[in-house]
Amino acid sequence: MGHQMSPLKKVLLAAISLLLGAGGVFYYLKSRDRYDPSKYTATITPALEQGEAKARGLRKGTRVELTLPDQFDTPKTIGPEVETLILAFSKGSGSVVRGYLDKQEPGYLTSHNAVFVADVSPFPVVLRNTIALPKLRKSSYSTLLLYEKEMSTALKKKEQGEQITIAKLTNNVVQRVMYIKSEAELESTFQ
Known about the structure:
This protein is of the alpha/beta class. The chain is built from six helices and eight strands; from the N terminus they run αββββααβαβαββα. It has a five-stranded mixed beta sheet with strand order 6-5-4-7-8. The protein has a three-stranded antiparallel beta sheet with strand order 1-2-3, covered by helices on one side. Strand 2 (63-69) and strand 3 (75-77) form a beta hairpin.
């Protein structure tokens, strides 16, 4: 005398199997990295005093030449017209910048000759593809993305990594670097 499974249990098991299979396919598709490092560059030429060791991060005199993808995988190059470089190296600092920019009119960054760069290198690929990029794609402004830890490391000062880095540029050369934490401080950099 065998034990028969009820039709409801069969349907429930079939639904669970289908969900697990779909979840596996979803994970596989979203865990594929579409970033092609051969298309992008970050050249940071520090101005060092004689006898000074190679310094990390942006500082006065540093030449910045970046070609990075935006949130739609469109390559963008930071040209001589860019006067303000806004860099976020942590989730918290990125949230502050996005909170400020989301309140501004479309074209705000362009009208202020500014570029926003966010470091997404710490995110696992599946989280970047399912959470971070879809959120960024809803923005009305362009966000350039640092996918490579080496690029991020070249641009940031480790001790300032949780803060927003603001670099004022003239012809791609840093004139001044500020580290800020709030939307109010970010707003004051454009006045």
